[in-house]
Amino acid sequence: MDVHVVDHPLAKARLSTMRDARTDSAAFRAALHELTVMLVYEATREMPVRIERIHTPVARTDGYALASPPLLVPVLRAGLGMADQAHKLIPDAQMGFVGLARDEETLKPTPYLESLPESLADRPVLVLDPMLATGGSMEYTIRLLTGRGATDVTAICALAAPEGIAHLEKTGLPLRVVTASIDERLNDSGFIVPGLGDAGDRQYGAV
Ligand SMILES: O=P(O)(O)OC[C@H]1O[C@H](OP(=O)(O)OP(=O)(O)O)[C@H](O)[C@@H]1O
Ligand SMILES: O=c1cc[nH]c(=O)[nH]1
Ligand SMILES: [Mg+2]
């Protein structure tokens, strides 16, 4: 599995704002928005482009556009904080939605929403979720997508735990991960250490 860490000073700065326990919800959301732009920018670097001749006011030249705009799939709730920024970068993208809540005891995802196009054959998919912890929520999401024919899936996460990466690797699912950090470990409650706490609660309040 290809894992790409976006190790850029500006990404580190936004991530540090998100990690800081003193950061309030509005500033946390703003930092996640900005980090999302950097992660999506890197994740789409190798995407095939369509070239067509265009006219500048001065001359003819090649114009570029994504050959096949990806499907964006934010995983609710926390992934919602990445959706608008990703969509601004790729305005032609269609968006699907998956809603999952991790059970605090078992750490297994409980699904409550699935809104996806019927067929995803030949369509790249970008899954947006700031946190990859045990990897259970991402595995669940990827299986929904591959069940609809997706073969080109990229998970875009602010943070990942080594345990979650290893878990996804073991599944053998066709997946690439783009993240700003692979942290140290998970704690006994399944939280990423040092992490940033609960990404959904920090954006929207505790449920
Ligand atoms: O890798 P995992 O161990 O599955 O954990 C990661 C999941 O946990 C968080 O969601 P959460 O269940 O807290 O829901 P929320 O977004 O509504 O807060 C996060 O946004 C991921 O979806
Ligand atoms: O550290 C973690 C782990 C799972 N989900 C979160 O929001 N944070
Ligand atoms: Mg949460």
TrEMBL record:
| Record InterPro entries | PRTase-like, PRTase_dom, Upp_B, UPRT, UPRTase/APRTase
Q: Which reaction does it catalyse?
A: UMP + diphosphate = 5-phospho-alpha-D-ribose 1-diphosphate + uracil
Q: Which residues bind 5-phospho-alpha-D-ribose 1-diphosphate?
A: R77, R102, D129, P130, M131, L132, A133, T134, G135, G136, S137, D198
Q: Which GO terms describe its biological process?
A: UMP salvage; uracil salvage
Q: Which GO terms describe its cellular component?
A: cytoplasm
Which residues are involved in binding uracil?
Answer: I192, G197, D198, A199
Q: Name one Pfam family in it.
A: UPRTase
Q: What class of enzyme is it?
A: transferase
Identify the SUPFAM superfamilies for this entry. PRTase-like
Q: What is its EC number?
A: 2.4.2.9
Task: Name the domain of life.
Answer: Bacteria
Q: Does the keyword GTP-binding apply?
A: yes
Please give the activity regulation comment for this entry: Allosterically activated by GTP.
Pathway connected to this protein: Pyrimidine metabolism; UMP biosynthesis via salvage pathway; UMP from uracil: step 1/1
Family listed = Belongs to the UPRTase family.
In UniProt terms, what function does this protein have? Catalyzes the conversion of uracil and 5-phospho-alpha-D-ribose 1-diphosphate (PRPP) to UMP and diphosphate.
- Listed name of the protein: Uracil phosphoribosyltransferase
Q: Which source organism does the UniProt entry give?
A: Amycolatopsis alba DSM 44262
The taxonomy runs: Bacteria, Bacillati, Actinomycetota, Actinomycetes, Pseudonocardiales
Name of the coding gene? upp
